[in-house]
Specification:
By secondary structure, the chain is of the alpha+beta class. Helix content is 31%, strand content 28%. Strands 5, 6, 13, 14, 15, 16, 17 and 18 form an eight-stranded mixed β-sheet that branches. Strands 1, 2, 8, 9, 10, 11 and 20 form a seven-stranded mixed β-sheet that branches. α1 packs parallel to α4, α2 packs parallel to α9 and α9 runs antiparallel to α10. The radius of gyration is 21 Å and the shape is globular.
């Protein structure tokens, strides 16, 4: 049995950022990271210009640059109108976005950020509150004691769900993801294109690989048969710019469906249990801030945990929970505004749902 001050379940960007910040802010705390070695099914992602400031704050910016990820100075969009527009990031005060292989980024970040923590390759199978905090079973032959736990298990919300709580879903967005190979030169930048049943994005993964992703609601995905090659290709033909890029692809892999919907999990009041990253609030990928938001929440959770355990500040965890709630509310308002800006298919189910109150729990697609 191990005795720790903090147990972090999950080693994604949020959990790793929390571990890194704890090592800087409260180095005397004993931290255990519990996470299985897993591979992400979707590789292509663009880190927003909000990510580099967090990496600098964590002291990992130079190490990030050494990984060789490519900066992205443009984002092309066909949204709200039929034409293609370019969003220039050369004049962006925070700098460019960055195209990354998400699996490689996560592996690097977890290794670099959690080097000061004890790590075991496992999952939390049970946790119970006790007088000193938590007793946690990780399926590794014994139970571990922790004064505070951080749920960084992503959309699974594994620890919070074990306390009988569920996140509030905002939609049932899914991503139908496929990769293709080409021997021709294609634009490396991110391209986003709306269509009548949702929206698509595509980007280069390097070495002749390209990612193509269709975003829509789960029920619409079933109707379009997006998990089948013929259905996925039929939906692709509804686009103009992305289908033109796809025609240069010599071979496309079979599509995979991945949950991508927005959700929010309220912090358990009175518990020494914090949610970070997607376990706290998952953003629609159209926001473009998922990884930066996850890392930032890990940083703030580390400050709250340190203040609680080292400085005996009984309000620190509540302040963090209030910050997560404010961030989620601001995101919901911005998300609705962005979707309302696309009015060409306002009568179609996907778009009609997003033009109504996105925070309504009575919507039939939730």
């Amino acid at each position: 049995m191990g005795t720790f001050d903090i147990l972090i379940a999950g080693a994604g960007p949020a959990g790793a950022a929390a571990a890194r910040m704890l090592a800087i802010f409260a180095p005397d705390l004993r931290v255990l990271m519990v996470a299985p070695v897993e591979k992400r099914p979707c590789r292509g992602e663009v880190l927003s210009p909000l990510a580099p400031p967090v990496l600098r704050h964590l002291g990992l910016w130079s190490a990030f640059l050494a990984q060789g990820f490519a900066p992205s100075h443009h984002t092309f969009t066909a949204w709200g109108e039929a034409g293609l527009r370019s969003s220039e990031m050369l004049l962006e005060a925070r700098g460019p976005a960055w195209r990354v292989d998400r699996a490689r980024f996560d592996d690097w970040f977890a290794s670099a950020a959690s080097s000061a923590a004890t790590r075991i390759d496992a999952k939390v199978s049970d946790l119970e509150r006790d007088a000193d905090g938590w007793s946690v079973d990780c399926g590794d032959g014994g139970r571990h004691a922790a004064r505070l736990v951080i749920d960084a298990t992503g959309r699974a919300n594994a620890l919070v769900r074990r306390q009988g709580r569920r996140a509030r879903s905002q939609d049932r967005l899914v991503a139908a993801y496929a990769e293709g190979t080409t021997s021709e030169q294609t634009a490396p930048e991110l391209l986003v294109e709306a269509f009548d049943d949702g929206w698509w994005y595509t980007m280069s993964l390097g070495e002749g690989r390209h990612a193509f992703v269709c975003m829509t609601d789960a029920d619409i995905a079933r109707g379009l048969r997006l998990n089948k090659p013929h259905g996925w290709h039929a939906a692709l033909t509804k686009t103009h710019f992305i289908s033109a890029i796809a025609r240069k692809i010599s071979r496309l892999d079979a599509p995979r469906l991945v949950a991508a919907g927005g959700r929010f999990a309220a912090m358990p009041v009175g518990f020494r249990l914090l949610c970070v990253g997607d376990a706290a609030s998952a953003f629609d990928p159209i926001s473009g801030h998922g990884v930066a938001k996850a890392m930032r929440s890990g940083v703030f959770a580390a400050y709250a945990a340190g203040d609680c355990l080292v400085r005996n500040d009984g309000t620190a965890l509540d302040h963090y929970g209030a910050w997560v709630a404010r961030e989620a509310a601001a995101y919901e308002a911005a998300l609705r505004e962005h979707y309302v800006s696309e009015s060409r298919w306002a009568d179609r189910p996907f778009w009609r749902r997003r033009c109504s109150d996105v925070s309504s729990s009575s919507s039939p697609h939730q």
